[in-house]
Amino acid sequence: MTTSTKSVRGLGAAGRGTEHHIRQRVSAIALIFLVPWFLSSVAFAMTAGYSGAIGWMQQSHNALLFILLLSAALYHMRLGLQTVIEDYIGRAGTKQALLIGNVFIVGGIYVVTLLSVLKLWLGNAA
Q: Nearest CA to 70 among 16, 123, 125, 121?
């Protein structure tokens, strides 16, 4: 005899549902703190003009927090898109192609923006 509690204690059909859920919630918690900082910082940097925005990004704490924001936001986005693809795409081949594309596109966005932030932070803005 199986109770309803016993049948749901596992990690789900794929064996990783709980881990995925927790990772998405942790990234969301990080964004709760990082997004308000970012919005207020951007509002401040906009009043200082282009050179002020470059100066803002060259400050170590701002660059590091922006890299954390970038990491959390893109990771959260990748996990969310993965869930949407898994839930709403029926054809196996299309699903696999979209899941692979999701990883590569988000990874590409991350690399390009990370390199841009590092270039500004290290003072090599041209």
A: 121
